[in-house]
Amino acid sequence: MSKSNRSELSSDPEFQLITKALGVISGKWRLYIILLLGDQTLRYRQLSEMLPGVSEKVLASELKSLVALGVMKRTAYAEIPPRVEYSLTRKGQLALPILKKIQEIGQIFN
Amino acid sequence: MSKSNRSELSSDPEFQLITKALGVISGKWRLYIILLLGDQTLRYRQLSEMLPGVSEKVLASELKSLVALGVMKRTAYAEIPPRVEYSLTRKGQLALPILKKIQEIGQIFN
DNA sequence: CTGAATCCAGCAGGATACTG
DNA sequence: CAGTATCCTGCTGGATTCAG
């Protein structure tokens, strides 16, 4: 990483990229949820059951953020009872291999 | 990621790895500091100057955490004035290529 | 020079109840 | 079924001062 001592860190393009990337993966459950979804399409209820101990509020807001970030897409069907499915976007799938690598870091420092 | 519906998430080994990895990279500056150091050896003052806007307290505690995690090593010389140098451990260097990849995630979602 | 100590604000994340 | 609405708490990171 080369340094161009500008006075503000926030103007460093590398810093901006890192911040962006951290937005996708940081948070107690975020990365785990993405890897859990993987290439599947899952309903809200399925995700919820796969994440025991994560409250509705937290799961819902994480999913919302991930959709807003462009990692996942949400598809709602106008049925009764309601059905909502989540899957990775193309960008999400692009990022997936790298995200899986992050687990290796966990192994290195075990 | 395959799921074996055990009742507690914290007993899932994959979750543990992810949590471990997140410990290394999450935090507003942590990942940036690691990439900034890269293969170099830098003194505290140099790091501090490369990180305008990061207070002494935050920098010092981040470095301490990174040393505790085994990512960096700290070498202090008994001189006056004191000299302290930081560099990546072998484990840190092992992780470096993956950490660099994380920036690509930032590019994907730009 | 290299930090530690203190004090403090904001927000991510959790518990629980309720709605379309 | 798929979420909101509230309310609450602890931790992360920031400002400033002090010390070896």
UniProtKB/TrEMBL annotation, chains A, B:
The keyword Ribonucleoprotein does not apply. InterPro entries: HTH_HxlR (IPR002577), WH-like_DNA-bd_sf (IPR036388), WH_DNA-bd_sf (IPR036390). GO terms for molecular function: DNA binding. Residues 12-110 form the HTH hxlR-type domain. Keywords: DNA-binding, Transcription, Transcription regulation. This is Helix-turn-helix transcriptional regulator. It comes from Spirosoma aureum.
